[in-house]
Design a protein that fits this description.
Elements (H helix, E strand, L loop, with lengths): L19 E3 L4 E3 L6 H44 L3 H39 L2 E5 L8 H20 L5 E5 L3 H8 L10 E3 L3 H4 L7 E4 L15 E5 L10 H9 L2 E3 L17 H14 L2 H8 L7 H6 L5 H15 L7 H20 L5
Parallel strand pairs: 3-4, 3-7, 4-5, 6-7, 6-8
Antiparallel strand pairs: 1-2
Helix pairs in contact: 2-11, 3-4, 3-7, 7-8, 8-10
């Protein structure tokens, strides 16, 4: 009721469209093609990604505090030294950083040479990126992260594969180009389909899909193995097998079931499949490759316990791969960025502390 006695019509608050789902911190536009279960999984994924962002920010703040603490300790140690001791310590530190940078640059050059050589003699592996129209933006970003892991893992390998990215179009192409240094990657990047790019080698193509009835027993350097680049939370089951069959391409699945039992499905991420291939090329042993790459959380308890007698090296490799999967901010160019930061910090520190000796 207004002060003058006139009444005003009560307007009900606008209703949220039925096509929206509200979570704790996010409003998610639901896709008509998604089931309720898929929508719940999507909401859970978005909450998980939000938490990852918070953790990343907290880790960044912690790193900043740790740097400040180290700088304070450094300043205090210098304050208690004579001028001669200070000069020797700083020169020693600069020399150590220089050696470390030279070693890193040498390793980078060796990695580059290995990747170039792989173009002629490496195992051809294609990541099929023609499914971007079936994914939402967050899923495309997740796939881009997996591709970053692929390139990083391949670069560390002593005998890397010859990697191809085909079907790089639309949002997928835009997201890939946002990766620092992507244009310098030693990798084949094609906007066309692998069928068009490698049309004269169609008979050599083998599409790797968990739905295939054929078990891959051995890798053949003459073959071209294709990995489906798809993150869809199991909405499009069997789509890679169907695509390969329509194109008349051979299919095969990794022999996971011969060596371990998965706690869920046998569907792996793109980078996990590639890392298994790389490990097998190194060891020629599927069991070693699976246990070195597939995280323990994806195996049944029996398999995890039954592998307790693995070597320390295999367990360490498994932990390293788990860390790689958990590290969302890893990028192939991080080493170069850190080197530049260290160099700039060293120069700045040197100028501030003993300008006459720099």
């Amino acid at each position: 009721m207004e002060p003058n006695g006139a009444s005003e019509a009560v307007v009900p608050p606008p209703q949220k469209p039925e096509t929206e789902l509200t979570t704790e911190n996010n409003t998610i536009s639901s896709n008509p093609t998604l089931s309720k279960n898929a929508q719940k999984k999507l909401a859970k994924q978005q909450r998980w990604e939000a938490k990852k962002i918070e953790k990343k920010a907290a880790a960044k703040e912690q790193k900043k505090k740790e740097l400040e603490r180290k700088r304070k300790e450094w300043d205090e140690s210098l304050a208690n030294m004579s001028e001669e001791e200070r000069t020797k310590l700083i020169e020693s530190r600069i020399s150590l950083r220089k050696e470390r940078m030279e070693k890193t640059l040498e390793e980078k050059q060796c990695r580059k040479e290995r990747l170039v050589k792989a173009k002629e003699h490496g195992q051809n592996v294609v990541v099929d990126l023609e499914f971007s129209h079936l994914m939402i933006s967050s899923e495309i970003r997740s796939l881009v992260q997996q591709i970053m892991y692929c390139y990083a893992a391949n670069g560390r390998c002593e005998s890397p594969a010859h990697l191809w990215l085909t079907g790089c179009e639309g949002e997928m192409d835009d997201q890939l180009k946002k990766i620092p240094g992507f244009d310098k990657w030693i990798i084949e990047k094609e906007d066309k389909s692998y069928i068009e790019v490698l049309q004269d080698r169609k008979d050599d193509m083998v599409y790797l899909t968990a739905d295939s009835e054929t078990v891959l027993e051995e890798l053949d350097l003459k073959k071209i193995y294709i990995i489906g680049g798809l993150v869809d939370r199991n909405r499009n089951k069997g789509i890679t097998l169907e695509k390969a069959q329509k194109q008349g391409i051979q299919t095969a699945k990794l022999p996971i079931g011969n060596f371990l039992t998965m706690s869920s499905s046998q569907v792996l991420t793109v980078n996990q499949v590639l890392e298994i291939i790389l490990k097998f090329l190194e060891t020629r042993d599927w069991k070693t490759s699976f246990f070195a790459v597939i995280p323990q959380r994806k195996r049944t308890q029996a398999d995890s316990e039954g592998n307790a007698d693995n070597t320390v090296e295999e367990e360490k490799e498994c932990e390293q791969n788990d860390d790689l999967m958990a590290c969302k901010n890893q990028c192939v160019e991080e080493e170069e960025i850190e080197q530049k930061d260290d160099l700039m910090a060293s120069k700045k520190q040197c100028v501030e502390e003993i300008p006459s000796n720099c």
